[in-house]
Amino acid sequence: MSILPAVIFWSFISFVLALLYIALLLFYVEHWQNQASFVETDIRRKTTVSIIIPARNESARILTCLDAVLHQNYPANLYEVIVVDDFSNDDTYALASSIQKHNLRVFQLATLLSDEQEHIHSYKKKAIEKAIDQSKAELIVCIDADVVMNEKWLRTIVAFYEKTECLMIAAPVMFHHQSSFLNHFQVLDFCGMMVSTAAVLESQQGIMCNGANLAYARQAFHYVQGFKDVDNFGSGDDVFLMHKIHTAFPGACRFLKSKVATVYTEAQPNISTFFSQRFRWASKNKHFKDRKINAQLLIVLCINISIVLNFCCWVFNCLFCFWESSSFGILLLLQLGVKSLADYIYLSTGATFFNQKASLWWFVPAQMAHIIYIVVVGVFGNFLPYQWKGRQYKK
């Protein structure tokens, strides 16, 4: 029986996926470029801010983070820093408590809880929620405990908030101290994420954000009842909250395109922690209700799966000398060519903006690794358990 009709049909599917993929990435690039970089030129200096830092086992980085946060070029009487130690097994709480600043408060999550600990599914969400209970500021800014930033970071966020009057701000996150292929791979991955985040938010074609650098109005948080109904998921303190605010206030979520407003963190040091982090991020995808983003993610997953399938079919047919091997070889080259061209334009756009062009030297091996990474995380991330900071999470 001839398999020619099946080959033709699969070739058509592969070609369509390639077209959809390049169209999607060019859409991201176009909307990124259409958005002007924000420059803080005028600020009222009246907005009160609570910077919330949930921290678990961050003794190696908490002091560096707090040093950067406490030396912001913003009136100290208008912003406070609230650290909530999330049952750390190291000296995170002691180190944070050792800093004597009038606008710094440090809590242990255990002391803020009553008898509800056994019912907690996401300790980070609970830590943020309890920290917000302790504050009264107009603007909530959440960051991770391992980030550092420019001294004008906070005033830039506040200026954007005051100028746009938006209710939620997704600000950039980037890596520093690149030294290995894995580090550069993550830099390129995040360059793409930032371009995508800006594009979908500014075009209103979905929502994306990163909880390592996120701001929102207190009134919006309370209006949507915070993390209610999404607190049973291990991750998603960022996108689930943004989805609730976006649903209640369409168009009120914005991306702050600014190098000054960027926070920097360390890339995951090894493959194990990298995949644990990405499985944690992927675990929320099946619960995410943004159809536009889900459709975009599906296109990305499908083209990478089709590339892997075409490669496997090509190898199989070469080994067994089937004539269809040339068909699969052509399909493979076509998809790799289209994906590589689209990815290079897409990633170089972000890398240029964030001064990370050195990582583009790793583009070719990163391209091959990215295909495997997307397939593994996209397929298995929805049901495999993962471990993060000493806690085991089940799907």
Descriptive overview:
The chain has 395 residues and is an alpha/beta fold. The protein folds into two domains: 131 residues, no CATH class; 242 residues, Spore Coat Polysaccharide Biosynthesis Protein SpsA, Chain A (Alpha-Beta Complex), CATH 3.90.550.10. 50% of the residues lie in helices and 13% in strands. It has a seven-stranded mixed sheet, with helices on both faces. A three-stranded mixed sheet has the order 5-10-7. Helix 1 packs across helix 11.
Task: Provide the fold topology.
Layout (H helix, E strand, L loop, with lengths): L3 H31 L14 E7 L6 H8 L9 E7 L6 H6 L6 E5 H4 L10 H11 L5 E5 L4 E2 L3 H12 L3 E3 L2 E4 L4 H23 L9 E5 H6 L15 H10 L4 E3 L7 E4 L4 H12 L8 H29 L5 H29 L9 H18 L5 E3 L2 E3 L2
Parallel strand pairs: 1-2, 1-4, 2-3, 6-9, 7-10
Antiparallel strand pairs: 4-8, 5-10, 6-8, 11-12
Helix pairs in contact: 1-7, 1-11, 1-12, 7-12, 7-13, 11-12, 11-13
Characterize this entry briefly.
The protein is an alpha/beta fold. The protein has helices spanning 4-34, 62-69, 92-97, 109-112, 123-133, 153-164, 181-203, 218-223, 239-248, 271-282, 291-319, 325-353, 363-380; strands at residues 49-55, 79-85, 104-108, 139-143, 148-149, 168-170, 173-176, 213-217, 253-255, 263-266, 386-388, 391-393. The protein has two domains: 4-32 and 292-393, no CATH class; 37-278, Spore Coat Polysaccharide Biosynthesis Protein SpsA, Chain A (Alpha-Beta Complex), CATH 3.90.550.10.
Name its key features.
single chain, 395 residues, alpha/beta, Spore Coat Polysaccharide Biosynthesis Protein SpsA, Chain A, seven-stranded mixed sheet, three-stranded mixed sheet, 13 helices, 13% strand
